[in-house]
DUF1700 domain-containing protein
Amino acid sequence: MNKHKFLGELSNQLKSVPQHDRNEMLYDFEEHFKIGIQEGKSEEEIAQGLGNPRVIAKELLVEYRVTQAETDQSVKSMFNVVLATISLSFFNIIFLLGPIVAIIGVYIALSAVALGFTLSPIAWIVSLFFIGLGDFLSGLFASVILCSLGVLMSIGMIYVGKFLYKVILKYVRFNIRIVKGGESR
């Protein structure tokens, strides 16, 4: 595989990355070819030494997505990081997707409980139309207590969500190091 074919395949695999960032990534590999040719190597030897452009593109895409998620803290960015990391190896489907789905599931369930508690006064008011004023004060106090707990829980879930975002990013980085065979500090 020559330089043109290698860079073309790498560029094609990175088509989801914006053009400016993709050009920066490709520039690094053009430099590898330039330095290798100055050392007397052929383009084929350099391409073989660099490895498979598809594998390289997956690794570059994961690094790009992680960096993007660190700056743009959104659910979409995190989803892109998880998908890109899973594409690195089958190992990631088990050791990355499982824990993340479980953590996010618990987070969503707790957020739903917080929302339900917060909206409990509405349910109490609706129940007044069907049941009547029978136990008015106890229902009022129960709905106020549940609403207060819901508001506190909702505020807590905002902070838990921010914390989980950071923890999941660290876990993804740890997982990437394991897949690449690096240190797992």
